[in-house]
Amino acid sequence: MALDSKIPQGHISEKWTNHKNNLKLVAPNNRPKIDVIVVGTGLAGASAAASLGEMGYNVKAFCFQDSPRRAHSIAAQGGINAAKNYQNDGDSTYRLFYDTIKGGDYRAREANVHRLAEVSANIIDQCVAQGVPFARDYGGLLDNRSFGGTQVQRTFYAAGQTGQQLLLGAYSALSRQIGLGNVKMYNRHEMLDLVQVDGKARGIIARNLITGELERHSAHAVIIATGGYGNVYFLSTNAMGSNVTAAWKIHKKGAHFANPCYVQIHPTCIPVHGTNQSKLTLMSESLRNSGRIWVPAKIEDAEAIRAGKLKPTQIAEEDRDYYLERRYPAFGNLVPRDVASRAAKERCDAGYGIEANDTNEGVYLDFASEIISKGKQAAYTQGDHNPSDAKIQELGKKWVEEKYGNLFTMYEKITDENPYETPMKIYPAVHYTMGGVWVDYNLMSSIPGCFVAGEANFSDHGANRLGASALMQGLADGYFVLPYTVSNYLADEIRTGKISTDSPEFVEAENAVRQSIDQFINNKGTKSVDYFHKKLGLIMWNKVGMARNEKGLTEAIEEIGKLREEFYNDVFVPGAANEFNQELEKALRVADFMELGQLMAKDALLRKESCGGHFREEYQDAEGETLRDDENFAYVAAWEYNGSDASKSVLHKEELKYEFIKIAARNYK
């Protein structure tokens, strides 16, 4: 199948406007005749369902949580980007476009990224109108802060809970449509297969997670907005329920899966503390605005800290290595996530890590300098031009508390250490996935009528996502892209009529799901689902993690294949199919992770370059920076499913052509 990205002609600044002007419309009187399914109710799904409901379509929305409010978008902390240039520091639509392309290491589709930058400003207006309580300065104007990979302040935020506030805004819009009857909400339902009729997406098979009942739901179009696949590593910053199942099911039905090897390792997470841990906790990237990252400059000091003989506050300033400031003076602590993560790994691998665990994986995020600086400023504004040290500390801590208080509280509750008094311990962890289902410019997959939004698609971030751009993409897709492009597709469906769920295609899909469930329920294995998930996670982290090489990737493909075979033979799923059964839910999800893990390793093995979140040890310069191969790998790797053995998947390439940005070596020095 040839890939047609459907990128419009014309200048980059006019593509989206001209495209919208030429899309087909569905008249208001015809919209109630058309059904749309939205799977997932995070920022992308909730905003899409609310928008389409507002337009008058019949929308069915599905989430496996007990409420859309529990979608993982709620966990986002730091902020949302928008090119409004409120700080008058040189920002613009083009600058956001350029930073995103550069941050993604020149592996994103140019037209999609510019559209994202264009509509970003509208998102803020939309959310303010919904009552989202963005932070404001003393005069009442919306405040901004910086994030990694930029030299401007374009990130809007609500303390350290921006995702929660944005999701509540989208949820309020969604709830209004539910109340009006335009959206029918299916909580505690999980999509387990896509149904195609005559080649088009026409519905889904969903499992009621309370009763275990399988249900058929039909529609004229299906939107998948189910987030990323970071939990393939078992330990990640994702909620434990986050999974790849909906995206993987449409992949198995013909939707290409693009760039699966692009995984974002977030540099500021609380380090792993034990083998029984179920997930990792993110500390917002916004903290890098105020915190300075360092390790001891002397290896004997690092050893003493790990042994508990020395405290970080006892390390003199001249004996600290602020390695990001040293290596990247132009951006310092605000380099992109992949750069910061690799730099932390390099220091820890060299023996300078400070966390006292078997791996010595940890660095400091220190707020002492910011507390002193802001304390002096606050005292000065109060008329005290010669404040005491105690006064400086008091006022500085108060400033930090107002800016980041909930994050500091969360850190102290988890670690039992006070980050106002002693530096935070952080280390990189799996966070976001840039890969996902391949979509064209209209966000439609290679299956007609099946659209994919937010983190579930691949389209906007290339090989590395800039901080605060996930929330931006999710809301851009749901509020400002899909209402146009889905309507364009549905314009040809107004005479189709109601789609029956009694067709052979629905019967066949339901039977296939039932067979898969019965296979697990009737399996007489001896080991739990988590046993296999953890083993998969260790393979993925050690061989398809922050650094990869040909030997490890080749081994990973083989090891995951053997593990998948053992999983099907020896997994034990207690309980029955027709009841509330969380172990069955996990088994079905881990089955998909097994296949995905192999494909990720395969994709990483074939991409013989280093770019963004994909770091091949064989392809780095003398200073440990990424070495891209633009001549051979400036393409999107879109994989076609060809059976559960991912080594047999078929590669399709979408060439990346940059007309309006010059490809260059990525430099943050």
UniProtKB/TrEMBL annotation:
One of its GO terms (biological process) is anaerobic respiration. Keywords: Cell membrane, Electron transport, FAD, Flavoprotein, Membrane, Oxidoreductase, Transport. It comes from the Bacteria. One of its GO terms (molecular function) is succinate dehydrogenase (quinone) activity. It is a peripheral membrane protein. It is found in: Cell membrane. The active site is at residue 337. InterPro entries: FAD-dep_OxRdtase_2_FAD-bd (IPR003953), FAD/NAD-bd_sf (IPR036188), Fum_R/Succ_DH_flav-like_C_sf (IPR037099), Fum_Rdtase/Succ_DH_flav-like_C (IPR015939), SdhA/FrdA/AprA (IPR030664), Succ_DH/Fum_Rdt_flav_su (IPR011280), Succ_DH/fumarate_Rdtase_cat_sf (IPR027477). One of its GO terms (cellular component) is plasma membrane. Its cofactor is FAD. The keyword Protease does not apply. Residues 533-668 form the Fumarate reductase/succinate dehydrogenase flavoprotein-like C-terminal domain. It is an enzyme of class 1 (oxidoreductase). Its EC number is 1.3.5.1. It catalyses: a quinone + succinate = fumarate + a quinol. NCBIfam families: PRK07573.1, sdhA_Bsu. Belongs to the FAD-dependent oxidoreductase 2 family. FRD/SDH subfamily. This is succinate dehydrogenase. It comes from Flavobacterium urocaniciphilum.
